[in-house]
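User: Let's play a game. I give you a shape written as tokens, and you guess the letters that built it. Ready? Here's round one.
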């Protein structure tokens, strides 16, 4: 009898152990599913500084001016100084090392490709993702032109955009170098 109880107890223990180990693997929670490759592609839209992810398409500042007036000026302003609650997108060059720096995509951002990426993923703010690649090239060209970085007829595409030299391209220091040079300025070189 004693042996029987023990065996029963052991079997019960073994069953519970099996259930505890096996349960998480067999239980289906019906939460989510593996995304399709089209879905992954739709989210995989980042464009880095070298612009190698930029898609086909092209645009000039002339095309961008019309789009800007229709879809951007209501928030960002027409002249750049009349932005209403949104960042101004033009001007500010030469102000970064003054007591009142004006940081715009033209004066501050180090890579032109980031402007393309940002507009493509996030703007217009009330309808992100609604612009096609050509429209984004045109708007990027318009912002670069209004900031005095390219000419009005310069065509922006996957080849030309990464070559645009932004005024503040060399204004950023790697974090460690920053700390070292700050200490050295204060006479406490590490
Ligand atoms: C409904 C208002 C609204 C509209 C329309 C809009 N934007 Fe914006 N935009 C914003 C706001 C607000 C920000 C600041 C970031 C944020 O809060 O999302 C911003 C940020 C930006 C930035 C980054 C600026 C920086 O210095 O960080 C760019 C570039 C930009 N917008 C471009 C555009 C372009 C191009 C259009 C037209 C296609 C557009 N925006 C339309 C509201 C708007």
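Assistant: Ready! My guess for every position:
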């Amino acid at each position: 009898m004693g042996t029987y109880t023990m065996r029963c107890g052991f079997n019960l223990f073994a069953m519970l152990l099996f259930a505890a180990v096996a349960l998480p693997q067999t239980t289906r929670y019906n939460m989510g599913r593996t995304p399709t490759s089209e879905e992954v592609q739709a989210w995989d839209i980042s464009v880095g500084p070298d612009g190698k992810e930029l898609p086909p398409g092209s645009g000039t500042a002339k095309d961008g001016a019309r789009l800007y007036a229709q879809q951007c000026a209501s928030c960002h302003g027409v002249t750049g100084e009349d932005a209403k609650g949104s960042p101004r997108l033009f001007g500010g060059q030469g102000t970064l090392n003054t007591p009142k720096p004006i940081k715009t995509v033209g004066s501050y951002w180090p890579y032109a490709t980031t402007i393309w990426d940002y507009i493509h993923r996030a703007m217009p703010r009330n309808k992100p993702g609604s612009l096609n690649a050509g429209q984004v090239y045109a708007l990027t060209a318009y912002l670069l032109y209004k900031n005095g970085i390219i000419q009005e007829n310069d065509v922006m595409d996957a080849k030309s955009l990464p070559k645009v030299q932004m005024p503040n391209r060399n204004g950023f220091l790697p974090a460690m170098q920053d700390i070292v040079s700050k200490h050295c300025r204060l006479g406490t070189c590490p």
